[in-house]
């Protein structure tokens, strides 16, 4: 899609991006079964929502941070409590500490919207309000937020609405993140570069460098073989304390074109 076509699309309707994140954990050598009961819960904290299931912490959704100028999920865990994203903040001597303010866990950011860089925290995606407070229905947790997109000099580019849905799938839990971008200020042009879209930084023990495995929907494995290629999903997994755990990231099948993947072995 060229620039003119993308601008025409934005004038006609909002742009919707959707990602599905499956956080899985299978007991390999652990005693006991995961209870079929339990439910999601949210503890509202200063600038963040702590999400748990059956009393087990799952993730923190941070919507206000002085250093990271966009919302994100940090310290994601499986239903059994195994952490699958890198510690945030990273722990020196245990984790690689690079890009600590760009790779906080699980996030949505763009390196180029109208020339503004939200991936590297030069532009700001500012939380305005929860248009839908956290609510439980049918075993699912849902909430929605409204945000403003501000350039490096504080100019308003447009707005975004994020809809989050969390649900349990057996030994795994799933997050569906739908982001809709609007602009009354003018066209929004999304640049074409590697740092564009949904991202996740895996726990150090799950990286390819330490024995983890990256697999795509095409059957390709390793960062080298999946990098820069289109796929319906990519999975990063490995073993921690005798448990097979990981995260699968899936682009919505209704997106206007297949997603390319920027996978790294670290």
Globally, the shape reads: globular
Separation, N- and C-terminal Cα atoms = 31 Å
**Strand order, sheet with most strands:** 7-8-9-10-1-15-14-12
Overall number of strands: 16
Could you say which structural class the secondary elements and strand pairing correspond to?
Answer: mainly beta
Based on the structure, what is the oligomeric state of the protein chains? single chain
- The ordered H/E elements are HEEEEEEEEEEEEHEEEE
Task: Describe the structure concisely.
The protein is mainly beta.
Question: Could you explain how this protein is built, in words?
Answer:
By secondary structure, the chain is mainly β. Helix content is 5%, strand content 45%. It has two helices and 16 strands. It has helices spanning 3-12, 223-226, and strands at 15-27, 40-45, 48-53, 56-62, 72-74, 106-110, 124-137, 140-150, 156-169, 172-182, 196-200, 213-216, 230-231, 233-240, 243-251, 259-260. The protein has an eight-stranded antiparallel β-sheet with strand order 7-8-9-10-1-15-14-12, with no helix packed on it. It has a six-stranded antiparallel β-sheet with strand order 2-3-4-5-6-11, with no helix packed on it. A hairpin with a 2-residue loop joins β7 and β8 (140-150). The radius of gyration is 18 Å and the shape is globular. It starts with a helix and ends in a 6-residue tail after the last strand. Mean pLDDT is 89; it is low at 1-13 and 27-33.
């Amino acid at each position: 899609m060229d620039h003119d076509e993308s601008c025409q699309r934005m004038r006609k309707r909002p742009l919707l991006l959707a990602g599905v994140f499956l956080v899985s954990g299978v007991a390999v050598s652990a005693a006991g079964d995961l209870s079929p009961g339990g439910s999601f819960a949210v503890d509202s904290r200063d600038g963040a929502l702590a999400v748990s299931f059956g009393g087990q912490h799952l993730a923190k959704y941070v919507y206000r941070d002085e250093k990271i100028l966009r919302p994100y999920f940090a310290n994601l865990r499986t239903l059994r409590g195994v952490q699958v994203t890198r510690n945030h903040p990273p722990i020196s001597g245990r984790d690689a500490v690079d890009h600590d303010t760009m790779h906080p866990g699980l996030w949505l950011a763009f390196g180029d919207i109208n020339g503004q860089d939200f991936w590297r925290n030069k532009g700001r995606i500012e939380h305005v309000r929860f248009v839908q407070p956290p609510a439980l229905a049918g075993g699912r947790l849902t909430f929605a937020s409204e945000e403003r997109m501000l350039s490096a000099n504080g100019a308003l580019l447009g707005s975004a609405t994020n809809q989050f849905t969390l649900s349990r799938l057996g030994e795994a839990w799933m997050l569906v993140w739908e982001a809709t971008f609007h602009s009354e200020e003018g066209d929004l042009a999304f640049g074409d570069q590697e740092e564009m879209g949904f991202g996740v930084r895996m726990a150090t023990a799950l990286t390819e460098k330490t024995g983890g495995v990256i697999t795509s929907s095409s059957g390709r494995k390793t960062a080298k073989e999946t990098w820069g290629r289109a796929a319906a999903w990519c999975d990063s997994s490995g073993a921690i304390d005798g448990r097979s755990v990981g995260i699968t990231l899936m682009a919505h099948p209704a997106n206007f074109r297949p997603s390319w993947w920027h996978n790294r072995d670290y």
